[in-house]
Amino acid sequence: MTRLTRDDCAALDAADPLADKRRDFALPDGIIYLDGNSLGALPKATPARLAAVISDEWGADLITSWNKHGWIDLPRRLGDKIARLVGAGSGEVVVADSTTINLFKVLAAALKLKPGRRVILSERDNFPTDLYIAQGLIGLLGQGHELRLVASDALSASLDENTAALMLSHVNYRTGALHDMAALTAAAHQRGALALWDLAHSAGVLAVDLNAADADFAVGCGYKFLNGGPGAPAFVFVATRHQEHFVQPLSGWLGHAEPFAFEAAYRPASGIGRYVCGTPPILSMAALETGLDLALSVESALLRAKSMALTDLFIRAVEQECAGFGLSLLSPREPMQRGSQASFTHAQGYPVMQALIARGVIGDFRAPDILRFGFAPLYLRFVDAWDAAQALRAVLETRAWERPEYHRRAAVT
Amino acid sequence: MTRLTRDDCAALDAADPLADKRRDFALPDGIIYLDGNSLGALPKATPARLAAVISDEWGADLITSWNKHGWIDLPRRLGDKIARLVGAGSGEVVVADSTTINLFKVLAAALKLKPGRRVILSERDNFPTDLYIAQGLIGLLGQGHELRLVASDALSASLDENTAALMLSHVNYRTGALHDMAALTAAAHQRGALALWDLAHSAGVLAVDLNAADADFAVGCGYKFLNGGPGAPAFVFVATRHQEHFVQPLSGWLGHAEPFAFEAAYRPASGIGRYVCGTPPILSMAALETGLDLALSVESALLRAKSMALTDLFIRAVEQECAGFGLSLLSPREPMQRGSQASFTHAQGYPVMQALIARGVIGDFRAPDILRFGFAPLYLRFVDAWDAAQALRAVLETRAWERPEYHRRAAVT
Q: DSSP assignment, residue B59?
């Protein structure tokens, strides 16, 4: 392979059909932001949109905004927008609560729909909140369910007649490894189990196709590649075939068939609406919509192609420029098997990342030794990947990570 | 009683120690807003605060804001502020999720703490979402629990050795009737039951004292009298004595003892922190804090005194000015038995309210025939109460409510 140069990267940027999209984001000067898989960047349209919702809707029209400005429809309206990003149909996705809360709803559904079965099967290093909420549900039910955790390559073989649900994150949050959603869903179905997917690291960056994969349930996050803002509301997908067969237990008034009839008995809304619970956080919802509209403004195939190209280029640049400094690629080398991130291990992972952040390259650290770099194709350039690799080399070459301040742990790592 | 005049009301405003607070709210011209118990008004400081959080925190500092701007502490920091408003101690309240979701957490706790008991006792016309979530939890558990609904005056007598929890709204959302929190909590405890209070219509307007009443659990809403914005995050109170004895089932990663250790097994945070679930909606949280700071800027005794005076004056004005038009007072006449609202019934309640809104007096309608008027003492004047009564008289006198457009039902009523 010929040696990569910065000019090669600049040429890729010049030919990038998504290059203009960067201008739609308010990125701080002097920062290369490789953490859009933890918190997406700020769309430039968001401040004005929020200012309007706050002053012109809440402030001026007060309670009448629920009708006048369609606040009451936001969960379904935004859900339909997300549906277009994840291969779902209209009426199959709704925006509500957090990813964790939504997972509780669909896990409860899955266990109820498979009454004779006692196992939720997942991956040992699935994102912890997914495992925690499964543990919470199982403990609450007290019916002898079990969360069985196996290694990634043992998932298919571990499905059996006692498996109620296969619960997986589409993209592993640490390694970036991508599951084959269609194959694993088919394997689950073959064993009579349901398949639940967490799209936290997929929605808005991969060409997800839930219905092509025949997925049963999915949840996902609004604040990563959907650029909805910190703690943006999450979403939940329920395949149409399951919607009328279960009433999810977090039965709040806005999931009622007629919330404003104020009946004493819960009657679920038809369809996906019953997955709404309480009153949605409108300000956070409005910010999410701006992020969604940006994701919808481009073809998802282009996003995926650029995502693969960016992570490929970054891996190549790091391996070329940082050879001999103790880094090992943790993410799959094959781009089709990888989400929109590249992770490396390093024995001094934590201080190396702090030193890198101090130089203006923001990635994140994941215990025990992982440097994680997320690549948001809507706003990153190929030269950013190159420059980040150079900054990483400088940190390692100068042993900048040895400075004591980079070893102090922050509350959020 | 002497006849009330507008001058009397103006004199009350001139003597009102809270009169200046109105200037802290962005109230639209020509509107008398009597629906702050449904959605509080916009504090003038909120737009600038949100603009700063969006652009200077999220936009400029991106993921580092979780540490740099203390986002990670918001649930507990805001919880401690709310604690001061509701008679709780530091570390007894946390801001998270919605009122409904929080009620699920503490109902699950109550049932677990009272394992031999099978009844959740509540009021027949409690706010429906509270009843719905109890139904959802009971259905999920499948252990033969029962939600027993009785009339308000039968609550004490209905407590027995099978009652696990007495679950009540402090203020009835329709009538405005106020429960005696201390007496009912004591009655519950005497029967060995726990007491759960929904403070949706109390926090920020009544002088609530959870610990003086020896309450076990409470939940409440950020978007009514706390002026936190549409769908603002809710709060949950857990008395210190119960905190370490139960792990609530909506066990998300931010309720973990060490979220960033990314362990596979859930280990609850000590104290109230375990009642946090997923990632909090930071934009909505920031808006809530501005509302909380306003509520904390005045003495709650003054708020309560003005609230009683406002509703008293409104009732007097309506009964004086609108006599003979078919209105009946639904709220308790005794101010100590009433929250910060006054409700009247009228056979044409729905169109009457629509006609009133068209004249710039915003209250709301609650089925089947209730005109509901909320009085937020932070931003309402005594002349507003007078003028609202005059507008109501005009609607009734001219039979403006007969116009067909006032009979069409909106999505949100």
A: I
Interface of A with B in 333-392 (CB under 8 A): 357, 362, 364, 366-367
Chain B CB contacts of A282 under 8 Å are 229-231, 284
B19 by Cβ neighbours in 10 Å (0-12 / 13-18 / 19+) ranks as: middle
Does A129 touch chain B if contact means CB atoms closer than 8 Å? yes
| b/e code B45-78 from CB counts within 10 Å (16+ = b) | bbbebbbebbbebbbbbbbbbbeebebbebbbbb
Beta strands in A105-162 (DSSP E): 119-123, 146-150
Q: How many CB pairs under 8 A join A and B?
A: 302
- Give residue B411's pLDDT: 77
Distances from the Cα of B357 to the Cα of B30, B35, B328, B364, B366, angstroms: 11, 11, 20, 9, 14
Contact yes or no for A287 and B285 at CB 8 A: no
A15–chain B Cβ distance below 8 A for any pair: no
Q: Which residues of chain A have pLDDT under 70?
A: 1
Alpha-carbon distance of A56 to B359, in angstroms, equals 20
Which is nearest to A105 in space by CA: A213, A192, A234? A234
How far from B46 is each of A70, A290, B288, CA to CA, in Å? 22, 20, 9
> Which residues in A lie closer than 8 A to residue B64 (C-beta atoms)?
357, 362
Tokens at B389, concatenated: 């009564």
CA distances from A242 to A112, A272, B266 (A): 11, 10, 29
Task: Give the model confidence (pLDDT) of B110-132 as tens digits.
Answer: 999 999 999 999 999 999 999 99
Name the band, by pLDDT with cuts 50, 70 and 90, for residue B214: very high
Identity of the residue in B62, B261, B410 whose CB atom sits nearest the CB atom of A367: B261
* Distance in angstroms (rounded) separating the CA atoms of residues B74 and B277: 13
Query: B279 and A101: CB-CB below 8 Å?
Result: no
Tens of pLDDT, residues A298-325: 999 999 999 999 999 999 999 999 999 9
| Interface confidence (ipTM) of the complex | 0.97
Q: Is B17 on the interface with A (CB under 8 A)?
A: no
As a 3-state breakdown, chain B gives helix, strand, coil percent values, each rounded to 5, of: 45, 15, 40
Distance CA B169, CA B181 (A): 10
**Which site among B226, B260, B288, B350 would you substitute to test the A interface, given the most A Cβ atoms closer than 10 Å to its Cβ?**
B260
- Evaluated on CA atoms B107, B292, B222, B267, the torsion sign reads negative
Q: How many percent of chain A have pLDDT more than 70?
A: 100
- Residue B412 pLDDT exceeds 90: no
Which string of b and e fits A92-121 if b means at least 16 CB within 10 Å? bbbbbbbbbbbbbbbbbbbbbbbeebbbbb
